[in-house]
Design goal:
heterodimer, A: 320 residues, alpha/beta, seven-stranded mixed beta sheet, five-stranded mixed beta sheet, B: 293 residues, six-stranded parallel beta sheet, two-stranded antiparallel sheet, 10 helices, 12% strand, globular
Amino acid sequence: MNAGDNLVQAARSALADAMEAEDAVMLLGEDVGTGGPFGLTRGLADKHGVGRVRNTPICEGSFVGAAVGLALAGGRPFVDIMFDDFATLASDQLFNNAAKIHFMSGGRYSVPLTIWTVAGAEGRWGAQHSQSLAGWFAQVPGIKVLSPSSPKMMYSSVLEALTDPDPVVLFVDRRLLYSRAELPGDDGSPWQARVIKGGSDVTVAASGSLAHSALEAAHAFPDGVVEVIDLQRLAPIDVSVIVESVARTSRLVIAHDEARCGGIAAAVASEVYERGYWSLEAPIQRVTCPPTPVPFAGPLEDAYVVSATDIVDAIALVRE
Amino acid sequence: MRAFEEVLAEGSRDDLLDGLLHLGIGTEAVTVGVMDCLIDDDRIYTAHRPHGHFLAAGVDARSIMAELAGRETGLCRGRGGTLHLMSDRAVMATGIVGGQLSVAVGHALRQPAGTLVAAFFGDGAAQTGAFHESLNLATLWRAPVLFVCENNGVAEFTPRSEHTTVASVVDYAAVYGIPTTIVDGSDVEEVAARTAILVEGIRRGSGPALLEATVTRLRPHYEGDWRAPDSAADFIDTLESVMVEIGADKREIARRRAADVDDARLLLASVLQDDPLPDPADDMSLVFARPLT
């Protein structure tokens, strides 16, 4: 990748490098041959041909199924599911086949499948092009979910996914697609949570664009008060970095861009309660979207999404 | 194949075997006729009546029996069971009607030239979107897939006429212009002859084809269901009459069939007695090929 790349450019650069290095890597999805809606695969069909950068009809259920078959036959498919809303159509193949085959076959087969999918509300796209279903993926054992939050982490996440033997979902925050913002620890592993700002009084855990919002919120307090953790890996959930942090700060805010019913924030909170309860001096606060579909109208969508201000309020609450 | 599944029915009835057993008794001629046209490098995908397909693909009978008995020595270390058998040549069975078809299409894209994937499914799957999407993808991509529909006229507990107004499964393939054949699935030689023609085209690179074999389901939808199937002629009895007519010894046939059943009973008994049960402590290590810390 080049210095100054945004997340889409970094991902494209990783795909180009992976296709160069490994013949088994193959791209599938709606319009991937023409670059897709965000330009993720732009130019790759010209270089590698329409056999390896393969346009599919609009049938998520079956092109994800075909990718599972490619993976079982020794391929390394990378599938673009344009929006995670559309992953609902592929849920049989993702949850009943991709996630379970290694286990159900007693380890005989693994499914080295990478799914790229974009999620998050911005621009008034409405309830079926904006929702965030990371918690769905996290609930099914057998799927790994990464949520890269900076260009460098995107680059390494794509390469890690394409060399991992298991199904990996790259859960991409739409608001970060064209972001160039770097974060501390960008040279580290995408598989572990990372501390992106040190602090002593409150821990804020977030991922994707909310990791950046959490940094912004932290700056509303004196330096050294708020510690910010970028989760990076949403499944299988690992709270050890958070538990270690809360042992020092005694307070936790979890910001996640997902409806409040179930989901990543609830899973993280329950794990931290089990392992870190005696460190806590205030109830864990979740900053999430309300339990409604994503609304369309501008003021409604603005009220729906998690903002830096919402995180500031939650930090203030746990400090009371 | 028949003896093996008759013993599975006994084992289920006598509570020796767990699991939701869906037997393929009545479809063996399709399995044998199709497999006769396959080569070692071909791959097989199937659905919820998989035991015959796995046996015919050459998978060790004991490892299948051990899997059905939930043993560590089973084909899938007791983690799959009847609906989720997986092996190298017979790649997968599935408990999701239609769920194997697109996977078979994708697998076929990586098959060496001149080889193919045979994808068995029932007529109930022909009403799923997955079937239609898979047929479209396979044709569009000229994937070397032989779709094999075992049409028993019953989808779970209701007749096909309550599921669709379309007369035959091959009718769906007509719009894609792919080769199709309907064959009497009780006639093993005819199945093999018709399959051979379709397979030859697929191996030459002409894309997918669809074989529809009419069969009779001689057992309930699954073992233990209270709805007994209508009594129907068993093609094996018919086959035996033909063999006797051309000079085979009727008592010898009966003796060999009984011996096959005895062998299968001994196999089940031996698995139940000797093969270890899996340890739940190993489960976590099987969720991922590369577990994360």
